[in-house]
Write a structure and sequence with these properties.
heterodimer; A: 273 residues; mainly alpha; MetI-like fold; 11 helices; globular; B: 308 residues; 2 domains; two-stranded antiparallel sheet; 14 helices; 2 strands; 3% strand
Chain lengths: 273, 308
């Protein structure tokens, strides 16, 4: 592609990036505001941060969110890796078309429908388990949250792993197989280490998606399992509060540091190669 | 001597004998079927039941056992209610309208940005791309929340700024209106438009553009005759990635929109609290609207994986 930009494109880009970043910057600036009215600047202070640290409801929600996100991201990384592997390597098996649909549908399905469908399924399963096996009902809570998050995040991991597998040198696997390695050994010794960066990227994506999800969590969580987005959502519906600004600033800071450092590390590796 | 029947049996047993690959396929297949496919089949059947108060689950059973065996109970009243009560149809139409216009706005803003990033000097490109991805990784909820403070009528930053400039003398009613929903959707989904557009624009063969220019084609003509058709896959993918989730959007209209005219995503959520069958029916209606876009998207995804 030819380099060089026309004035029109340049102006569009500048305006576009202002549009993307202005709200975030405003949010950060006003997290240091002393006033109770979030958008009227009074004076610089850390009040919002002090209040945030003392807010037990938010801290509990952070803990719930971290538990759900790490467990569901790990499960999704395992399931998603298998999905990606199956889709790139097993090009012909019965039901492949349905499988492809099942893997990619969660990517585009509106969350309201997925959330509703999953919740009704959980209730139905609970009833079945109770009536047939006499198992105490699981109810809505951490377990249902983790299952729901794992299910939609699996699709994202599968896409990332699939793209990693697509640009993959098969000759290494073939060589190992020719030398007598069994398929499982080939997978764990050759394939897995090569696609590991994809799996890690997929895990991180699943983790952030889980931390961020509002709608599916709203349907599938129950009392005692309020994730951070659910607490923020219920607070935000009542209006803006400086504490949420402070919380947002901290979250944005963590993500930015993560993304920027990942990018720098990636570029340095590229240079070495 | 083995009879033909026995042979058939042996080959059948060999077929179903678990081996490494069938177990590998089975695990995710089972999970996705149980927690994704079956739930959708379930809401379809629940949409064909009647609500019952004070009962768990609060709807008539789908299957009842009678003297003559199992009986399937189907009730079409919920779908009939859609035609009688205009409010649901109106909110579907409104949702599709808002999603369509937002998608077009995303395309109009996203295309020049993706084009600009693709044509930027190498040392800038990575950084610019990262700047598009960064908001995508930060919390969606918080980015929507940020607009409440900006668009508000009392003390809203945008109104304050415009009044300070002297453009307006009365604060504008943007927050809690459709306009705020448009802004929220375009803002939240813009990265989903830019990334697929960038992916196709980056691969665009520059010699074609040069050839067109050498043959005397004007830049705008070249753009519409070459650049746009060649980036069509990216345009379609980007538009679908914005349009499909936007139709069922819940958080953005809930926080920024007018509560007197709820969109279909909000309807599903609020109706669910008192009438499961109707909520399921509304979910089926959203699926009906989205079935064609979702199939196009699936088809494109499939084609992509095959060509790879």
């Amino acid at each position: 592609m030819k380099r060089g930009l026309s004035l029109f494109v340049l102006i569009c880009m500048i305006l576009g990036f202002i549009f993307l970043y202005a709200p975030i910057i405003v949010l950060i600036i006003f997290s240091f505001n002393k006033s109770k009215l979030v958008t009227v600047w009074q004076e610089f202070s850390f009040d919002a941060y002090v209040n945030l640290v003392n807010n037990k409801q938010i801290l509990d929600a952070v803990w719930v969110s971290l538990k759900v996100a790490s467990l569901s991201a790990t499960l999704a990384a395992i399931l998603g890796t298998i999905c990606g592997y199956v889709l790139t390597r097993f090009t012909k098996f019965r039901g492949r078309f349905l499988f492809l649909g099942l893997v990619s549908a969660p990517l585009v399905m509106p969350e309201v429908i997925t959330g509703l469908a999953m919740l009704l399924m959980f209730i139905q399963l609970d009833g079945l388990l109770q009536n047939i096996f006499g198992i105490e009902p699981v109810g809505r809570g951490l377990v249902t949250l983790i299952i729901a998050h794992t299910t939609f995040a699996t699709a994202y991991v599968a896409v990332v792993v699939q793209s990693r597998l697509a640009g993959f040198d098969r000759s290494l696997e073939e060589a190992a197989a020719d030398l007598g390695a069994r398929p499982f050994k080939v997978f764990f010794l050759i394939t897995l280490p090569i696609i590991a960066p994809g799996i890690i990227a997929g895990w991180l994506l699943a983790f952030t998606l889980s931390l961020d999800d509002v709608v599916i969590s709203d349907f599938t969580s129950g009392p005692g399992a309020s994730t951070l987005p659910l607490v923020i959502f219920s607070k935000v519906r009542l209006g803006i509060s400086p504490e949420i600004n402070a919380l947002a600033t901290i979250l944005i800071l963590i993500v930015s540091v993560g993304i920027i450092s990942a990018n720098i590390i990636g570029r340095q590796r590229e240079k070495k190669n | 001597m083995a009879t033909a029947k026995q042979k058939n049996l042996v080959s059948f047993l060999q077929k179903i004998k678990p081996n490494g690959s069938s177990v590998t396929i089975f695990i995710p297949y089972f999970w996705l079927t149980l927690f994704f496919l079956l739930p959708f089949i379930l809401i379809f059947f629940i949409s064909l039941t009647q609500p019952v108060d004070f009962q768990q689950p609060p709807h008539t059973p789908i299957i009842t056992s009678t003297e003559n065996g199992l009986q399937l109970n189907l009730y079409f009243g919920n779908y009939q209610a859609l035609t009688e009560d205009q409010i649901y149809i109106l909110s579907i139409v409104n949702s599709v309208k808002i999603a369509t216009i937002s998608t077009l706005c995303c395309l109009l803003i996203g295309f020049p940005m993706a084009y600009g990033i693709a044509r930027s000097p190498d040392r800038w490109r990575n950084t610019l791309l990262m700047m598009v991805i960064l908001p995508f990784w930060t919390s969606f909820l918080i980015r929507v929340y940020a607009w409440i403070g900006i668009l508000g009528k009392e003390n809203g930053l945008l109104n304050g700024f415009l009044m300070w400039l002297g453009v307006i003398d009365q604060p504008l009613d943007i927050l809690y209106s459709d306009l705020a929903v448009y802004i929220g959707i375009v803002y939240s989904y813009l990265p989903f438009m830019i990334l697929p557009l960038y992916a196709t624009l980056e691969k665009l063969d520059n010699t074609l553009l040069e050839a067109a220019a050498d043959l005397g084609s004007k830049p705008t003509n070249t753009f519409f005759a070459i650049t746009v058709p060649l980036t069509m896959p990216g345009i379609i993918a980007g538009c679908l990635l914005v349009f499909i989730p936007a139709v069922g959007e819940f958080v953005i209209p809930e926080l920024l929109g007018d509560s007197s005219s709820p969109l279909i995503g909000q309807q599903v959520r609020s109706v669910f609290s008192y009438d499961w069958p109707m909520a399921s029916t509304l979910a089926m209606m959203i699926l009906l609207v989205l079935v064609v876009p979702i199939f196009i998207f699936q088809y494109l995804q499939n084609k992509q994986t095959v060509t790879k």
